[in-house]
Specification:
Helix content of chain B: 55-70%
Oligomer: heterodimer
Number of domains of chain B: 3
Helix content of chain A: 25-40%
Number of strands of chain B: 10
Number of helices of chain B: 13
Structural class of chain B: alpha+beta
Radius of gyration of chain A: 18 Å
Strand content of chain B: 5-15%
Order of helices and strands of chain B: HHHHHHEEEHHEHEEHEEHHEEH
Number of helices of chain A: 8
CATH superfamily of the largest domain in chain B: Histidine kinase-like ATPase, C-terminal domain
Order of helices and strands of chain A: EHEHEEEHEHEHEEEEHEHHEE
CATH class of the largest domain in chain B: Alpha Beta
CATH topology of the largest domain in chain A: Rossmann fold
CATH superfamily of the largest domain in chain A: Response regulator
Number of strands of chain A: 14
CATH architecture of the largest domain in chain A: 3-Layer(aba) Sandwich
Radius of gyration of chain B: 46 Å
Largest interface: A-B, 23 and 28 residues
Distance between the termini of chain A: 18 Å
Largest sheet of chain A: 5 strands, parallel
CATH architecture of the largest domain in chain B: 2-Layer Sandwich
CATH class of the largest domain in chain A: Alpha Beta
Distance between the termini of chain B: 79 Å
Number of domains of chain A: 2
């Protein structure tokens, strides 16, 4: 499926670029590398990539400025690279239209999973009415949730929260995203309502809420619904 | 009342008073002259001169003298209502009266001015004294500037400022003086406005500037001493840190370089695939450990700089513990982990990144100091107004003597086969937990091993029921 997909890598560190190129090209992606804000914006236009991997710290400016100017004319999927401790940057980038992020250091496995997820999301034409990941099936049209075929009863709030996550399956949603999605603008700061409902959802959906396999916490940033990669025998 | 006061302050008022008093004296003299000699009536006029001089100063006193002589001549001495006199003797009387009156007036007026001057001086001295006294308690240049503005201003009755650090002053500088200390310029003392200063004000400002210079010198000296102490402390810490880090970094680096060296060696092409995989896994684990170590070092710098600001929010401990377990998965490889959490834990306010680091460090320690394959337990439960998080291992346990000391910076347990570490992990845990208002300790476990326990306070808001079931 990766055949012919073009990935634009924007990073000024040679080692990281080498590693990204190795990881991506063995999977059949075509990799275009640039190292500056200026080149990034130019290449996003001329190279017609399918996805951009963008480092936030660039020598001639902030990666965020690339993202902001890109978002004025393109909805190209963008995955941000940051470092630990810069949670605020991640949130800013996600709010500015980034699709996902990776915290350095990250493994090849993580990288490829995020790239696949971002491309898959863009590939979907219509919003699917039924989102399936692992044993969890969420039927958005009929408001029905099943785990391994058994129906699970959710409160209206819990369903709204799960629906928000399912509509952006695989993508990180910031706390603010989720709060405004479910409760509205006025509740942006009420993080505790989110925590409690996530906890309740996990107890209903996860086999072991302590080691969740569907609703994944992104520390300091938000939550995502993990999309299990389609298994050949599933 | 106010109008009367205003009237009393007009420049011509003293002369109105002089005229009135002289007129009154003439009336008194008119009656008295039947009983006493005219020469003695002169005394009444002298009295007017003294009173006027005391009250208003020299010029009105001169006016009183002249007016008195004329009144005596015109109204009381024969022929009345005429300036001519019958008796030539009176000319002498008038001349003496005028002279005496002028002298008395002048002396009295000088006396009055002198008293006024003394009073003013006394006020200035008091202001200067208040200034010095306030200056003693100044702890910074800002304090000095405040004292200067308040007390020195009162002493010279002009707005005074101490300009320092390029801070702007008000308009105009009637007088200014740089404040220099042996360490260099500290600032400039400025009297604002455009009107030049009187001599006494200049004298006063010179005294003020001398005192300010002394205080500035004292401040600079104590600051220099403080800086030197901090620097010394920082250097000591840096030495210890470098020593500990270089040691802690070398061990994982050695196994990474070693493992990759074998895998990449062409002469080892026939390497058993299982061995090869094992070497790569080792390299990866050790790289993860290095990454963790760097996180610890970053937290240490934050704690050390004294600028640890918690970005705290409400968190579900089950959620946080889950993330900690998934992050520690690499260290815990192959170990059973038993997580036991109270079902209705309250939400707790915390900085999630930092608490994750605490849990990670404790889980890492549990894995490092216990036999491979033994279980690690993570319990989270409510106790009173605290939530307790307990990480238990089945290791050798901690000597009673070491139970306090292992939380100190760079303290490392000793013994053969001791795993490498920075000696920072537990110190960081302590710093973070205490910044959250909690406590951390270690206790022996029933059946062997240790439990590392930390608490976090449950705020009143954490209790609120937000729909948890």
């Amino acid at each position: 499926m990766a055949e012919g997909k073009r990935v634009l890598v924007v990073d000024d560190e040679r080692q990281i670029r080498r590693f990204l190129r190795a990881a991506l090209s063995t999977q059949g992606y075509t990799v275009v590398e640039v190292g500056t804000v200026h080149e990034a914006i130019a290449s996003a236009n001329t190279e017609q990539p399918d996805l951009m991997i963008l480092d936030l710290g660039l020598p001639d400016g902030d990666g965020l400025s690339v993202l902001r100017s890109l978002r004025q004319w393109s909805d190209l999927p963008v995955i941000i690279l940051t470092v630990r401790g810069h949670e605020a940057d991640k949130i800013t980038a996600l709010d500015a239209g980034a699709d996902d992020y990776l915290t350095k250091p990250f493994s090849t496995g993580e990288l490829l999973a995020r790239v696949r997820a971002a491309l898959r999301r863009r590939g979907r034409q219509e919003q699917e009415l039924v989102v399936v990941t692992g044993h969890l099936a969420i039927d958005l049209g009929r408001r029905q949730v099943t785990v391994a075929g058994e129906e699970v009863h959710l409160t209206a709030t819990e369903f709204a929260l799960l629906k928000g996550l399912a509509l952006h399956a695989g993508k990180v949603l910031t706390h603010r995203n989720l709060l405004t999605m479910v409760w509205g603008e006025a509740y942006e700061a009420e993080a505790h309502m989110l925590r409690v409902n996530i906890s309740n959802l996990r107890r209903k959906l996860e086999r072991n809420p302590l080691q969740p396999s569907y609703i994944i916490t992104e520390p300091g940033v938000g939550y995502r619904l993990r999309m299990a990669d389609p298994e050949p025998h599933a | 009342m106010a109008q009367i006061k205003k009237l009393l302050r007009t420049p011509w008022w003293p002369y109105v008073e002089v005229a009135t008093l002289t007129f009154g004296s003439t009336l008194v003299g008119h009656v008295a002259i039947r009983h006493i000699t005219p020469v003695n009536v002169v005394m009444i006029y002298l009295l007017v001169v003294v009173v006027t001089a005391l009250r208003w100063g020299e010029r009105p006193a001169v006016a009183a003298s002249v007016l008195g002589v004329f009144a005596l001549d015109f109204f009381l001495v024969e022929p009345r209502l005429s300036l001519t006199v019958e008796d030539a003797e009176y000319v002498v009387t008038f001349a003496v009266l005028l002279l005496v009156a002028l002298v008395i007036g002048r002396l009295t007026a000088q006396q009055r001015e002198h008293a006024a001057e003394l009073k003013k001086r006394e006020q200035e001295t008091a202001a200067l004294y208040a200034f010095s006294r306030s200056l003693v308690s100044a702890r910074s240049l800002q304090d000095v500037a405040d004292v200067v503005a308040e007390h020195a201003g009162a002493a010279v009755r002009r707005p005074v400022q101490l300009a320092y650090d390029g801070r702007a002053v008000g308009d105009g500088a009637a007088w200014s003086s740089p404040i220099t200390t042996p360490a260099g310029a500290a600032g400039t003392l400025v009297v604002l406005g455009f009107r030049p200063l009187a001599k006494w004000q200049v004298r006063m400002m010179e005294a003020v500037s001398g005192q300010v210079a002394i205080v500035c010198e004292r401040l600079q000296m104590s600051e220099a001493a403080h800086r030197a102490r901090l620097l010394e402390e920082a250097e000591r810490l840096q030495d210890a840190l470098l020593h500990s880090i270089s040691h802690a970094l070398r061990t994982p680096l050695a196994s990474i370089i070693g493992s990759l060296g074998i895998v990449g060696d062409p002469s080892q092409a026939g390497l058993d695939p299982a061995v090869r995989q094992d070497l790569l896994d080792t390299a990866r684990e050790e790289a993860e450990r290095l990454n963790w170590l760097v996180s610890n070092l970053l937290d240490m710098t934050r704690l050390e700089s004294g600028h640890l600001t918690l970005s705290a929010d409400w968190h579900d401990l089950e959620d946080v513990a889950g993330v900690a377990l998934s992050q520690a998965a690499v260290f815990l490889r192959g170990r059973p982990v038993n997580g036991r959490l109270d079902r209705d834990l309250p939400l707790v306010r915390m900085d999630q990144t930092l608490i994750l680091q605490v849990m990670g460090n404790l889980l890492d320690n549990a894995a490092k100091y216990s036999p491979a394959g033994s279980a690690v337990d993570l319990d989270v439960y409510r106790r009173g107004d605290m939530v307790e998080v307990r990480v238990g291992d089945r290791g050798r346990g901690v000597d009673p003597d070491d139970r306090e000391r292992i939380f100190e910076k760079f303290y490392r347990g000793e013994g053969p086969g001791h795993p490498a570490g920075t000696g920072l992990g537990l110190a960081i845990c302590k710093g973070i937990v205490e910044a959250h208002g909690g406590r951390i300790w270690v206790e022996p476990r029933e059946g062997g091993g240790s439990s590392f326990v930390f608490t976090l306070p449950v705020g009143p808001e954490g209790e609120a029921d937000y729909g948890r079931r």
